[in-house]
Design brief:
It is a single chain. The protein is mostly helical and 339 residues long. Helix content is 59%, strand content 4%. It has helices at residues 12-25, 30-44, 47-58, 67-80, 84-97, 102-114, 118-133, 144-157, 163-171, 178-181, 186-189, 195-216, 229-238, 249-265, 278-287, 297-307, and strands at 222-226, 271-275, 312-313. A three-stranded mixed sheet has the order 1-2-3, with helices on both faces. Helix 4 (67-80) runs antiparallel to helix 5 (84-97), helix 6 runs antiparallel to helix 7 and helix 8 (144-157) crosses helix 9 (163-171). The relative contact order is 0.07. This is SEC-C domain-containing protein.
Length: 339
């Protein structure tokens, strides 16, 4: 599916089948590809088949990058077609595991909220923000939905603001305040015969829709290829002609950061980094009927990895781990100049 294809023009069943076939060709990317396929199946209404894909991932002998995310998605999907008891059990398991990734927390909390389990949703959002944001100077972007979701549920419960709500307000950037967006009484204004009230509500809905579009948009990234030190050493030992592209690992890392900053300063949006491996690169070269020693394959390989969902957004949050794999915060590593 092209990234600019309107959602209403997508054959979700066909797209899911295409992603499943692609997962068979690239087993190292099966987790990301099958999760996208399951999402298409859920949208198409074939929720049992989506559950089959989640079970396929969870029963795989391969180690999953984010098993808690898969379980959370499975629970949310199960609840939508009548398997409430199983969904609740999985949700409790995700909460007990206390994942460090905010995405599983968001999914299970919103599943509870969607089914009017507001107290349980509030407890889940609160548990997540305390687990992930206590003593954190600035909440990373991926944790913002936790703060916003908690704020939304608390407004529906009529609970007074607390320090986490204040933090949600501080990271909210839309022109319409969170209190307005999450006002439980807004639904009544949609039935009003007062044109001024209707116009005000339309403006709020447009702002909210813009936020959802921004959150859900995953346009095709401009991705730069990154080789970890061990992979680059193996690559140059096998294909020494590529040494002209990579004089040293330190220069390689510096070139990536400078290239991305140059693209950013020119206004190029949605930048990312993809990490290569020698076996994957060799397989790609074979699929292109070419030699891995051909340097013109490198940008094509990066583009292919990005198309398979392997790109990581750049730049990271200043307090997040640097993209280079050093283990240091980005602000103290390659983000030093940016900070």
């Amino acid at each position: 599916m092209r990234p600019d294809t309107p959602a209403e023009n997508v054959d979700h069943t066909a797209e899911a089948a295409r992603l499943e076939r692609t997962a068979g060709l690239y087993p190292e990317d099966a987790e990301a590809l099958l999760l996208r396929a399951a999402a298409h199946l859920e949208v198409s209404g074939d929720r049992p088949e989506a559950t089959t894909l989640y079970d396929r991932l969870l029963s795989s002998t391969d180690t999953l990058e984010n098993p808690h995310l898969v379980r959370a998605l499975k629970a949310s999907n199960l609840w939508e077609y009548g398997h409430e008891a199983e969904a609740r059990a999985i949700i409790e398991g995700v909460r007990a595991a206390s994942p460090r990734d905010p995405a599983p927390w968001v999914i299970v909390a919103e599943a509870l909220e969607h089914h009017d389990e507001l107290e349980a949703a509030h407890d889940t959002f609160t548990e997540a923000v305390r687990h992930l944001l206590t003593d954190v100077p600035q909440p990373p972007q991926p944790t913002h939905p936790l703060l916003f979701g908690r704020h939304r549920v608390r407004r529906m419960l009529g609970t007074p603001h607390d320090e986490w709500d204040a933090l949600a307000d501080s990271v909210h950037s839309l022109p319409v305040s969170l209190d307005e967006l999450h006002d439980p009484k807004r639904v009544w204004s949609l039935g009003s015969e007062n044109p001024a009230e209707l116009e005000a509500e339309i403006l709020r809905l447009r702002a909210e829709l813009g936020a959802y579009r921004e959150a859900l948009s995953r346009p095709f990234p401009v991705a730069i290829l990154h080789w970890p030190a061990t992979e680059l050493t193996e690559l140059l030992e096998a294909y020494p002609t590529l040494a002209s592209e990579y004089p040293s690992h330190e220069i390689h890392l510096a070139t990536i950061e400078s290239a991305l900053r140059e693209l950013a300063s020119s206004g190029t949006p949605n930048l990312g980094i993809v990490t290569g491996t020698v076996p994957s690169y060799e397989a790609f070269a074979a699929s292109e009927l070419s030699s891995p020693s051909d340097p013109t394959l490198l940008p094509q390989y990066a583009t292919t990895l990005a198309a398979r969902g392997r790109a990581v957004a750049w730049p990271p949050q200043q307090e997040s781990a640097c993209w280079c794999g050093s283990g240091q915060p980005y602000a103290q590593c390659h983000g030093t100049a940016a900070a």
